[in-house]
């Protein structure tokens, strides 16, 4: 409880304006023991956000000091290790993960592993080619906070050969209007590329971009590169709030000539994509002049007869199917007396969200976790999802209501007590907690109307056997042997037909109610 409280205060602190000016959100420097201010931005130590893993300082030079530490996690396929941050429910967040391997474990190349946001497999993290080129890797996504915490997790998979790690994690609150054609209750956005066309400087970010999104330079294509920093653009009112700086450069062609871009550079998986393309004319466009063109993507018409003016225009698609290499072609209209131009673009893969475990079960499991002194190290993030990364010892139902149906922590050396909160996990049909060091009373579990098997044998439970266990009509196995239970066996259980009741090894337990 106390660690939770401290972490809450820390996250509130990070939202205070102080003397720093930075986008609203939480910046976490993974593996760092102290909070720091780097380039005017406040980074927090990750200690209040994560419970497992090992902080490591890397020994090679880094381009930014928040890359000098990482947190590494066990290479334990099927188990996820999560950062959990307090967020504003219903707010939309840009989530960015940054990875710089730095040879922290003495190997030649970085591991490949999975990253997960809440219950959704976000993407594979493969930093191999970036690291070989001496570069960091980052991933950006846009996700809605569906509860008052959001988790970002790292998990090893079958292709993981050494311990996964992370360097930095950022949560930045985005305005409501950004990317708002996306149904964020059911989908997330995984960024593929965000480019400033015709630009050749360093990455455009905060303060040019008020949310610190990264706009990478892009200068390919068989086009003229026109840089005109004193041009008169009057762009405003774009819902996605692109930085004005991207309108200072452009890719363009001469009158009558098509413009072709192999963008995004990456070959795409078969999926649907959110695409936004940004345009603003920089020339003196009098009424006699016009810049009109058609846009196609891989030969499919994306937009016809776009008229670009200094006021600017964005053309977006919410769910455009693509796969493999992508070619964008801007073909001038015959009547246009200027060639086409383009200033910026964003493309995201649209990720169907995996869902979330029912909140009632999550709250109950968290209470149980808090009542244990040594809970399993992967008990963080969503308990059931993604399904290949469910918590140690639980199984869950499928379908629209994801519920925990069994709990099996047999022989895990657990100490602590059995939280009464477990009675709220009403879909449970089996509980196996045998062969641990659990103590304290057995709580009232009579609300578990589907419970068939309750195994609490070989622990240190004390107190009386709750009468209410007799109310669970479905109960077929009740194993309580070798504990420290006292009192007498309730008559509601003793001799109940169809119930396998085992109580031996409780030296103070009597089998019959005292005569009255
Ligand atoms: C972090 O803080 C501790 C305690 O305040 C201090 O001893 C240590 O030198 C600091 N480490 C760094 C890297 O600043
Ligand atoms: C990771 O990326 C490298 C370089 O692109 C590639 O050779 C390798 O196959 C990838 N690994 C996995 C597991 O996808
Ligand atoms: C590494 O970074 C440099 C400079 O930012 C860039 O030019 C280069 O393309 C990057 N290499 C890779 C493989 O991303
Ligand atoms: C997106 O945001 C803009 C600006 O606030 C608003 O005009 C528009 O209706 C919104 N669209 C949707 C689908 O919510
Ligand atoms: C960017 O392009 C301009 C114009 O071609 C050139 O003068 C400048 O040196 C380039 N800057 C970089 C960083 O390459
Ligand atoms: C760009 O490529 C297209 C198609 O290959 C060609 O028609 C056009 O003339 C080229 N433009 C320039 C400026 O080279
Ligand atoms: C920019 O354009 C606006 C109207 O389009 C005009 O009022 C203003 O004088 C122009 N500024 C410059 C520097 O050309
Ligand atoms: C519970 O877990 C133990 C240890 O992993 C295993 O041996 C046992 O078969 C499991 N029981 C059930 C009912 O799944
Ligand atoms: C069960 O959940 C309800 C509603 O969330 C809560 O008020 C109650 O305290 C919980 N029961 C236990 C035993 O924790
Ligand atoms: C068992 O319970 C008795 C009576 O409550 C107590 O004196 C004893 O210390 C307990 N033993 C263990 C191992 O918990």
From TrEMBL:
Residues 360-397 form the Leucine-rich repeat-containing N-terminal plant-type domain. The keyword Transmembrane applies. SUPFAM superfamilies: L domain-like. Coiled coil: none annotated. Its main location: membrane. InterPro entries: Leu-rich_rpt, LRR_dom_sf, LRR_N_plant-typ, Malectin-like_Carb-bd_dom. Gene3D superfamilies: Galactose-binding lectin, Ribonuclease Inhibitor. It comes from the Eukaryota. It is a single-pass membrane protein. It is found in: Membrane. Residues 28-350 form the Malectin-like domain. One of its GO terms (cellular component) is membrane. Residues 1-21 form the signal peptide. Keywords: Leucine-rich repeat, Membrane, Repeat, Signal, Transmembrane, Transmembrane helix. This is Leucine-rich repeat receptor-like serine/threonine-protein kinase.
């Amino acid at each position: 409880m106390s660690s939770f409280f401290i972490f809450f205060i820390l996250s509130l602190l990070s939202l205070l304006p102080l003397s720093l000016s930075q986008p609203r959100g939480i910046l976490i420097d993974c593996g760092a023991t102290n909070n720091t201010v780097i380039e005017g931005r406040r980074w927090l130590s990750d200690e209040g956000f994560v419970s497992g893993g090992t902080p490591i300082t890397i020994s090679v030079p880094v381009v930014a000091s928040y890359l000098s530490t990482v947190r590494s996690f066990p290479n334990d396929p099927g188990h996820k290790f999560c950062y959990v941050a307090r967020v504003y429910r219903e707010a939309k967040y840009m989530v960015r993960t940054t990875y710089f391997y730095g040879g922290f474990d003495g190997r030649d190349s970085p591991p490949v592993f999975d990253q997960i946001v809440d219950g959704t497999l976000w993407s594979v993290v493969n930093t191999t080619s970036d690291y070989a080129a001496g570069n960091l890797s980052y991933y950006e996504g846009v996700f809605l906070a569906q509860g008052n915490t959001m988790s970002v997790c790292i998990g090893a998979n079958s292709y993981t050969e050494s311990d996964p790690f992370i360097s930095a994690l950022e949560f930045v609150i985005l305005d409501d209007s950004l990317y708002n054609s996306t149904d964020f209750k059911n989908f997330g956005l995984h960024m593929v590329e965000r480019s400033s066309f015709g630009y050749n400087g360093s990455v455009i970010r905060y303060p040019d971009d008020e949310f610190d999104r990264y706009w990478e330079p892009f200068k390919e294509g068989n086009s003229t590169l026109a840089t005109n920093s004193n041009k008169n653009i009057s762009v405003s009112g774009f819902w996605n709030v692109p930085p004005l700086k991207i309108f200072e450069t452009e890719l363009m062609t001469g009158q009558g000539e098509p413009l072709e871009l192999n963008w995004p550079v990456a070959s795409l998986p078969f999926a649907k994509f959110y695409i936004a393309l940004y345009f603003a004319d920089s020339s003196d466009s009098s009424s006699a002049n016009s810049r009109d063109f058609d846009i196609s993507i891989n030969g499919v018409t994306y937009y016809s007869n776009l008229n670009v003016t200094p006021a600017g225009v964005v053309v977006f698609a919410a769910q455009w199917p693509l796969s493999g290499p992508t070619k964008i072609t801007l073909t001038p209209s015959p009547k246009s007396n200027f060639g086409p131009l383009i200033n910026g673009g964003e493309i995201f893969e649209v990720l169907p969200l995996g869902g979330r475990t029912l909140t009632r079960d999550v709250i109950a499991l968290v209470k149980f976790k808090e009542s244990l002194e040594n809970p399993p190290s992967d008990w963080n993030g969503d308990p059931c999802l993604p399904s290949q990364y469910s918590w140690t010892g639980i199984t869950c139902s499928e379908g629209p209501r994801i519920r925990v149906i069994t709990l099996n922590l047999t022989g895990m050396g657990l100490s602590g007590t059995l939280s009464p909160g477990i009675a709220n996990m009403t879909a449970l049909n089996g509980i196996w907690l045998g062969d641990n060091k659990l103590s304290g009373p057995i709580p009232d579990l009579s609300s578990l109307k589907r419970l068939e098997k309750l195994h609490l044998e070989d622990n240190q439970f004390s107190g009386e056997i709750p009468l209410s266990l007799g109310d669970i009509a479905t109960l077929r196995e009740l194993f309580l042997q070798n504990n420290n239970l006292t009192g007498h066996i309730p008559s509601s259980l003793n001799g109940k037909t169809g119930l396998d009741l085992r109580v031996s090894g409780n030296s103070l337990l009597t089998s019959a109610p005292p005569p009255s």
